[in-house]
Amino acid sequence: MQKGTLFLIPVPLAENATQKSFTPYLIDTINAIKTYIVENEKTARKFLKEAGIKTPQSELLIHDFGKHKRGNSLVPYFTQLMSGIDVGLMSEAGCPGVADPGAEIVSEAHKRGIKVVPLVGPNSMLQALMASGFSGQSFSFHGYLPIDKVDRAKRIKELESLSEKNKQTQLFMETPFRNNHLLEDVLKNCHGSTQLCIACNINGEDEFIKTMTVGAWRGERIDLHKKPTVFLIYKG
């Protein structure tokens, strides 16, 4: 029996950013699919509605892959795919599988010989890199840094050294309610000449993206509390 295709469907990064995020192909795709694997059913249904899905939501089959469901068997998520039915995979925001637990679903799809098709859409890391002015030839994304203040300070210094040694842009992030603490530690532990880009609430109405030296940032007052933010450093 022919297997279905797993479509990776990007989700807008911010409120009121839907029209910045859609492509005609994405809209055609969601209107051809009735089964989804999602990180958050409520936000997934909202996105599908805003994207213009014509299928009644009552007819959709939504598999919840939220944090309380992970660690269980993946078999139920692949019943339709193995039966020849196409399925869409959606993150809470941005691209599935990138800094996202959906990577586990994608990995299993490859093991099962299921075709995986990534759709074009918003990605905070790449958009931040594009807007930073830093090297796009060599870069590394590190996800979340250690929560412990001592370990985090050590890691920040390591990333700065890596950037200088390899001429490589270093990207990282934090849980939004801890952004200000992370910024404080970056400004405290990096050299004043190191370049720092702060990309906050990308695609949102209050989007803020700015690059300056750490020394210049030390004279600024900025509040990143509860705002999705990507931090980039570059010491060329």
Could you give a quick summary of the protein structure above?
By secondary structure, the chain is of the alpha/beta class. It contains nine helices and ten strands.
Features:
about 240 residues, 5-stranded parallel β-sheet, 5-stranded mixed β-sheet
Overview of the molecule:
This protein has 236 residues and is an alpha/beta fold. It has 9 helices and 10 strands. The chain has a 5-stranded parallel beta sheet with strand order 3-2-4-1-5, sandwiched between helices. Strand 2, helix 3 and strand 3 form a beta-alpha-beta unit. Helix 7 crosses helix 8. The longest helix has 18 residues. The N and C termini lie far apart (54 Å).
Instruction: Report the portion of residues in β strands.
Output: 15-25%
Residue ranges: pLDDT <50 for 5 or more in a row? none
Question: pLDDT average, as an integer?
Answer: 94
Number of helices: 9
**What separation lies between the terminal Cα atoms?**
54 Å
Report the helical percentage. 25-40%
Total beta strands: 10
What is the general shape? elongated
Computed CA radius of gyration, to the nearest angstrom:
20 Å
